[in-house]
Design brief:
This protein has 243 residues and is mainly α. The protein has 9 helices and no strands.
Length: 243
């Protein structure tokens, strides 16, 4: 009698996307924060920094936003490993963290608009406009709690599942992942204080080695897939900029 075993399901978005997210997500966040290092962490100072050096601040916020976006495949990869033995922790951790990432992307969009107000209205008027509207309601206020607590839930799941290993190194990486909960959130938050840097370094310690492992174990991509990806990125950027 022949027993037919089901074929393994393909994982989405795939090991190459997840591996790149694990590697570049934390690095882009750190680069974004370092680019605005030394500026005030709150909106009047951030707007003033943009007025003085717009290119530097746009680069900083762009790097940070790109890092946030790349964290979703990173979280998917980690959650899959946790889910092998603790699916509940994996589901809750990934869901809370990704909802929190949506909130950070929304904050990045509002920050971008605030920078444009400096160009259109001038610095004093832009600071006044942001001050009077800072507490305005938006639906993403509901995920502010998840931005912080999601990383803790995911770290606990990683610890219980031994996703980073069973020894002291694994425990340290779980603790490092939990440090991401300390990264400040909100619109026009400079995030260049020591607490922010520690939080992001913790994220790097936790995720980058996993990214290296994922990419090493990934099957070699086909040449046409690599060529298509390399061509698609600049084309999509040019088309987006041109409207």
């Amino acid at each position: 009698m022949t027993i037919n075993h089901p074929a393994p399901r393909p994982t989405l978005p795939g090991p190459w996307v997840e591996g790149v997210g694990l590697l570049l997500g934390p690095l882009l966040l750190i680069a974004g924060v370092l680019a605005r290092l030394g500026e005030s962490d709150f909106f009047p100072g951030q707007l003033a920094a943009y007025a003085a050096a717009p290119g530097r601040m746009i680069l900083s916020y762009s790097l940070f936003a790109a890092g946030v976006v790349l964290l979703w495949p990173a979280v998917t990869s980690l959650a899959r490993g946790i889910g092998l033995s603790h699916p509940g922790w994996a589901r809750w951790g990934a869901t809370l963290v990704i909802l929190g990432l949506f909130g950070r992307v929304f904050h990045a969009g509002v920050s971008h608009l605030a920078f444009q107000l400096v160009d259109v209205l001038g610095l004093p008027a832009a600071q006044k406009a942001v001050e009077t509207t800072y507490g305005a309601f938006h639906v993403f206020k509901a995920v502010n709690l998840f931005i912080m607590t999601g990383w803790i839930v995911l770290a606990v799941g990683a610890f219980r599942a031994k996703a980073f290993g069973a020894g002291p190194v694994g425990i340290v990486r779980c603790l490092a992942l939990a440090l991401a909960a300390g990264l400040p959130l909100g619109v026009l938050k400079g995030s260049s204080d020591p607490i922010s840097l520690v939080a992001l370094l913790g994220l790097a310690v936790a995720l980058i080695p996993l990214g290296v492992t994922v990419l090493k174990q990934a099957p070699a991509p086909r040449w046409w897939a690599v060529a298509l990806t390399v061509a698609l990125v600049p084309v999509a950027f040019v088309l987006g900029v041109s409207g």
